[in-house]
Amino acid sequence: MKTITLILSLFLSLGCNNSDPQTPFQSTEITFTEIGKGALFGNGVENISQTSLLINNQTEWQNLMNQMDSVNNISDTFPETNIDFETYSIVAVFLEIKSNGWEVVINTIIENEDNITISTQETEFFSTVITQPFHIVKIPKTTKEIVTEQ
User: Fold this and answer.
1) What's the predicted TM-score (pTM) here?
2) Cβ contact 43:130 at 8 Å
3) DSSP E strand boundaries for 41-77
């Protein structure tokens, strides 16, 4: 009987060995839904600096829309303003105020192990209006840091 107990103990201890290597994190592209893209025309009155924002609650989202709407009702052009923040996050990219016409486009969003990388493209076109380009998208809920690349 002692032999059987010893053999069973040996098998159990070997079976509990956790020597399997952990699977490395695979960066994946995140599918996003466009909420708004365009430019602010208030010559900085909106008081939004060049930034990339991650918004995870209705209060922050409403505050941003109020800032954007302080000169023109920009958010009226958004196809969606009621966001389910239990399921989604908002990513908003704003360029600095430009003296000519500019556009910013979010090309890809990649989820990495420790952050979310946003790849953007800036395009200049002729205009005599001072603008501040922006692009706002909805992604699956995250709390990871946002990193922006051009």
Assistant:
1) 0.82
2) yes
3) 51-55
